[in-house]
Write a structure and sequence with these properties.
There is one protein chain. This protein is mainly alpha-helical. The protein has helices spanning about 5-25, 25-35, 40-60. Helix 1 (about 5-25) packs across helix 2 (about 25-35). The protein is extended.
Length: about 60
Amino acid sequence: MSNEILLTAVALMLVLEGLLPFLFPGVWREAFRKLTELSDGQLRFIGLTAMLAGLLLLALVRGD
């Protein structure tokens, strides 16, 4: 993977991560507050689910 592709992916991730707090700061703050109340196991499950969804989407886009 070239550095350009990796940096493009990171840049796109940052843009997407910034949309919710920019557009709906109150909603984002409340969602973040609720996330802090979850157990470690619940947070790990959310992280695992997000990673698997990302890998699936990547595989679909790349046609692998």
